[in-house]
């Protein structure tokens, strides 16, 4: 495999989740799929999804729309050394970060994004990096044992690896968590699970309920 074909979130209410992601983030099943699940999970699920946008005004627009639609603020929007961003938790429990490297707006504010990024929180970045390279992914950026970003390929979602505790801190939540990740990844490869229990399955065709 050389990319993620699909990201599937396992949620209690697929209709409500589909409405939230379509209305707030403008996402459809070509980017994020949904699957009904009551699998037990507590605390941090070990991953975050990020929308990378072009300017701070777009961050505020996305975060404001998410909060109005029932999301919870985990980290209020703020400036930092790297740019501007905020973190929210969707009603289904998925953590989303909306961020930009820009320091000021350069155009009209809009709810559109440049990249959709999945960050997996892993215990050993180097070991997980090697595992995914062996599955066929190509490293785009690597910062030792702290962070790895893979080349996107033809997929709609960029995959990156981050230390679990560092990712939880970045998301504004405790690192502890048990149970299901409530996340399934799809690719052209045969089904497998990675060292941290993230499940991959063979890509299935889109359906009306995906």
TrEMBL record:
It comes from the Bacteria. Gene3D superfamilies: 2,3-Dihydroxybiphenyl 1,2-Dioxygenase, domain 1. This is Glyoxalase. It comes from Streptomyces olivochromogenes. InterPro entries: Glyas_Bleomycin-R_OHBP_Dase (IPR029068).
């Amino acid at each position: 495999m050389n990319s993620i074909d699909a990201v599937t979130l396992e949620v209690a209410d697929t209709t409500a989740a589909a409405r939230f992601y379509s209305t707030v983030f403008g996402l459809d099943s070509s980017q994020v799929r949904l699957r009904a699940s009551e699998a037990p999970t507590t605390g941090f699920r070990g991953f975050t999804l990020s929308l990378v946008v072009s300017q701070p005004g777009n961050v505020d627009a996305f975060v404001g729309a998410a909060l109005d639609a029932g999301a919870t603020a985990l980290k209020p929007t703020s400036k930092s050394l790297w740019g501007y961003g905020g973190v929210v938790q969707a009603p289904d429990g998925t953590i989303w970060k909306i961020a930009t490297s820009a320091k000021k707006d350069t155009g009209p504010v809009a709810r559109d994004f440049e990249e959709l990024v999945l960050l997996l929180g892993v215990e050993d970045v180097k070991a997980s990096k090697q595992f995914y390279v062996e599955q066929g992914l190509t490293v785009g950026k690597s910062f030792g044992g702290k962070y790895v970003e893979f080349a996107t390929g033809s997929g709609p979602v960029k995959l990156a690896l981050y230390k679990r505790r560092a990712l939880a801190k970045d998301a504004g939540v405790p690192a502890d968590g048990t149970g299901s990740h409530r996340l399934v990844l799809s690719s052209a490869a045969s089904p497998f699970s990675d060292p941290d229990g993230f499940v991959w399955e063979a890509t299935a065709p889109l359906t009306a309920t995906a």
